[in-house]
Fold each of these.
Amino acid sequence: MAQLTSRFALLLSFVLVASPALAADWEGGDATKGENIFKRCQACHTVEKGAAHRIGPNLHGIVNSKAAAKKGYRYSPAMQAKAAEGLIWTGEVLYTYLERPQAHVPRSPMSFVGLKKPDERRDLIAYLIEAGK
Ligand code: HEC
């Protein structure tokens, strides 16, 4: 029993030490593939610096920026409320949000069903980072 407990302790300490070094779920995407996936967003969003808002706001530099912060765009009350709660579009948050936007920000007018495949979300986030530089 003591041996089992110490093995468990060893395993636990390994997990605790090793986990920060592992890539997060949203990391390591392919920006080139992501550019292609972004075509599904383009009906409503631009990503180039200073490009016009469409149905949705311009997304230049969106990764790690505050929600509902693009000048000259009228956000929904739902998105403004999330922003007031302190929503930041980190890679992690976008990874969850883009799977099912309506679940994450209910009553937002972003009528996009979502990207079910983790790979697609990862690639898209890599592209958003790249295009935001
Ligand atoms: C049918 C139009 C439409 C499509 C397609 C769409 N969006 Fe949106 N998006 C919107 C609208 C409208 C908003 C503003 C939502 C609000 O104010 O509640 C928005 C908001 C956002 C925001 C928040 C921006 C901010 O400044 O806080 C992000 C991030 C976003 N969209 C990413 C995407 C991505 C990535 C895709 C493609 C996978 C996508 N959207 C597809 C319409 C769309």
Amino acid sequence: MFDTMTVTKIAGAFFGALLIFLLLNWAASVIYSTKTGSRHGPKPEVAYLIEVEDDSAAAPAEEAVVIDVAALVAAGDVERGTRVFKSCAACHGTTPGARKSGPTLFSVVGRDVGSVEGFNYSSAMSGFGGQWTVEALFAFLTRPKEYVPGTIMGFRGIKKDSDKANLIAYLQTLGG
Ligand code: HEC
């Protein structure tokens, strides 16, 4: 009973309405996201996060973990380092030949590992080799027992990078 013209009109009206509905829907979602973004703080770009679908996106985050220890220590605060050193002072002196349960830290930066004359190091420490560069100290002080497995230094480590940097900046001031 419907002729071609009627069918075309009905279909036209239907698809026209559908198009308008989709457009309104899209417009509403754009407006809505932008509004929520600005209402909940200065991050309207959250509305566009869906775009990020890239394998390489994970790579820069890992690179950011690499720490420029030398730069951190160079910018270290000696005064604050003195305060961090309080957790070492029970076991370490800072003058030449100072004897406590640990070896003196006088001029420790750049010193050969396990080289204080007459100190009874563990075999782990005396056989470790190398020197106490700022990088080595940074790694050692993060987790002493991981860096020198078998060390008898009873200290669990320092978490905060800034604490370690300040401490090493202070250690650098100890002797020549
Ligand atoms: C509970 C005592 C104790 C504390 C606390 C402690 N140390 Fe030690 N430390 C030792 C002992 C003991 C050794 C020798 C370890 C060995 O022979 O295995 C040592 C070794 C070291 C060495 C290697 C020295 C060398 O001559 O090769 C460094 C560097 C060092 N400590 C730094 C520190 C710093 C910095 C702190 C504070 C953040 C600290 N230690 C806290 C007891 C301690």
Amino acid sequence: MHRMTLRRFLAAGLATATLASVFGVAIAQDAGTPAETLSVEEARAARSPFMRQNGMLLRDASRASGDEAVAAMTSLRDNYLRLPTLFPEGSHGDGSDALPAIWENWDAFVAIAESGAEAAQQAIDAAEAGDAAAYQEAVRAVSGTCAQCHQQFRS
Ligand code: HEC
């Protein structure tokens, strides 16, 4: 596929997926499903297994292609969309490495998670299109968001 064509294809796919996820949330709320709310204690306890799972998904994804790649990156994308709910305000301290900077710069924190979800979506689209180079590039972009967030928001 020509490079520009592929870029447009990825951009269109991403826009569709973003819309779908927005509608997904809207539908879930209309159906009376409450948005996920975790207590400070629940959130702190959930983070370690959550973050470790992300590391494993990323490792699996970096070696995968095709359906396996799509599956790993879909889980990672959904985790990234969920990530902010694991950080209710004030859930630092008590052995947690989360920094208070998270809530002082909440928009920046959420923006990193969103950019990771977008990169994961690009990886899904590239895996579905069978474009190995675009896939690896998108996986690297997701991987970059781990350090980007940790540098700013983890002690
Ligand atoms: C938007 C911010 C953000 C992103 C993105 C993020 N992390 Fe984290 N991560 C944190 C914070 C904050 C903590 C500290 C949580 C705590 O100690 O309560 C953490 C903790 C961790 C830990 C330590 C868990 C433990 O056992 O205590 C690991 C491992 C980790 N992250 C891996 C990853 C990997 C791998 C990625 C990328 C796939 C990633 N994280 C993406 C914010 C982020």
Amino acid sequence: MFMGNKYKVLAGLLIGCWGWMAASRAPSTLQAGVPYPENFRSWTLIKTAVIEKGNPAFAHWGGFHHIYANEKAMAGYRTGRFADGSVIVFDVLEAVEKNNTLEEGERRIVDVMVRDTVRYAATGGWGFEEFNGASKTERLVGDSGKSCFGCHRVREGNGFVFSGYRE
Ligand code: HEC
């Protein structure tokens, strides 16, 4: 009887522990999505453009955008082949007119492409995500990047990347 209870307690502890471990592991499993690209502004600047009123992309991407690449993505820009671990960021900021100068305003969105040919096989080997404004957690892509890829797929011959690097 005593032993029986002891085993029950032990079993309970084990199940409790397993439950706790499973629960504490859950977030990392859920975060299979594209991580926020910390410190991307210290990466290589690929290009800058301003999307103005009248451009069909204005409502969503209007204002400045700067494109940044991490080191692996830089190798991709040079060779045309992007290795797993490449990350490219499309940083969108308001364009504010001040004293005949166009200045960067508030951040509007941060679009990210992360190369992982296994995890994101369904979207050309790129994971797509869009972070809202200055938020590092508010994600706007709800269809696993299919809508983003719908446009980027036309660049298949260029690793699904539109921009090019100029020395
Ligand atoms: C309507 C077509 C279209 C859609 C939809 C689209 N993109 Fe793009 N994307 C572009 C174009 C065009 C460029 C290049 C802009 C430039 O060169 O200034 C670009 C550039 C980028 C870049 C920089 C790398 C590159 O390809 O030059 C990233 C990162 C990016 N987009 C992410 C996204 C994400 C994330 C989504 C979905 C939320 C998305 N894009 C949806 C057209 C699109």
